[in-house]
Amino acid sequence: MKIINCPISGSEKGVEFLNLGKIPLVNNLCDTKQDALNCEKFSLAVQFFPESKVTCLTETVDKDNLFLHYLYQSGVNKPYLDHCAEMYDYLSHIIDFKDKDVVLDIGGNDGSLLKEFRKENQNLHYINVDCSRSFIDVNRESGIEYINEYFGESISLPYKAKLITSTNVFQHTEPIRSFVKGICRNLSNEGVWCLEFPYILTTLANDNYDQVYHEHVYYFCLQNIIDITKQEGLKVINVSYHDMHAGTLRVLIVKESSRRQPDNTILSFLNLEKTLTKEYYLKWGSQTTSKIKQYQVDMKRLVMNGAKVACFGAAAKGCIFLNTCEIDNTMVQFIIDDTPFKQGKFVPGTGIEVVSRKILKDVKIDYMIILAHNFKDYIINSLKGQYNGKYILMFPDMKIL
């Protein structure tokens, strides 16, 4: 479905600034190499609405194709678990939790965030609303109430939530107005919505075009969040920046009627966002297209010179990088990933198999491309003693370590 109107202003004056062509669904790993090479691909392009500063895809894919059988598992990501623990500490200084208060996590995957919260406070009622069928059992076995639905205004909990969290999920949701209405419906009068998303300013500044894929319908700035929440009876009270996902904004939001008031963290981000103009986006898109072509040349040269290349991290962003740079199983030996669900699968569009790191005992690799580059330090440290070759980082520019 094409996105013609801006969801905030209603404008039809979207400006396409980057077109990545036909790309497969990045998290739909395949069972065989042939399936991966022959998988269906969909148009992937992004546009900018200058009036509202909204950045979004030009068209979307059916959400059931994207999310019902999801292979990404939060719990294998140690930096994310540390981030969740830090988030609880951050919020516990702001929210006065009482026994049995409801904490709702939207798109909570395998329940990792709520499990980290529960380590610090066992007396709260934890609920995970997630559309994927893949994590029903793992949540319920952990004692977390799991509601297997898409979150939106139709969701109604029996008790209002003291805290609602949504990390790296709001930008996946095409009907964002319904999502925000659902927040209003389920948040207590003095409750807090803690919203996190990859920040468009750092995505652009670091040339992270690999953040663009079909699941990410929107690419938010703070002004977008202020505008959409205000339209639905909410207000932003606090903003902070975090390194997660190569640059994340954490935004605290409450009901307009709440006693809590906006603090002095907001204005500095809004001033930075004055750089988001039509001209800036068009220039960035042109430079990114040129960079992709250079990546193609550099990687082909590396392989032609006889280097054995592998990758680490069968992440969505890695699938985008491999497909846009035309890197396939003839150039890359395998992709290591610690997620058991992914091992033995093949990355769509490439035919490259996902394997366990145990393979490094038997196979010598010259270069390892870190596809999950937002966790590069953790990955490199975790491979000490297992891998002795060189590392390749691709963002913001190609670098060999």
Verbal overview:
By secondary structure, the protein is an alpha/beta fold. The protein folds into two domains: 151 residues, Rossmann fold, CATH 3.40.50.720; 227 residues, Vaccinia Virus protein VP39 (Rossmann fold). The protein is 29% helix and 23% strand. Strands 6-5-4-7-8-10-9 form a seven-stranded mixed β-sheet, sandwiched between helices. Strands 13-14-12-11-15-16-17 form a seven-stranded mixed β-sheet. Strand 9 and strand 10 form a beta hairpin. Helix 3 packs across helix 4. The longest helix is centred in the last third of the chain and has 27 residues. The model has no long low-confidence stretch (mean pLDDT 95).
Q: What descriptors fit this protein?
A:
401 residues; Rossmann fold; 2 domains; 7-stranded mixed β-sheet
End-to-end separation = 42 Å
What CATH calls the topology of the largest domain is Rossmann fold
CATH homologous superfamily (4th level) name of the largest domain: Vaccinia Virus protein VP39
Shape: globular
Give the percentage of residues in beta strands: 15-25%
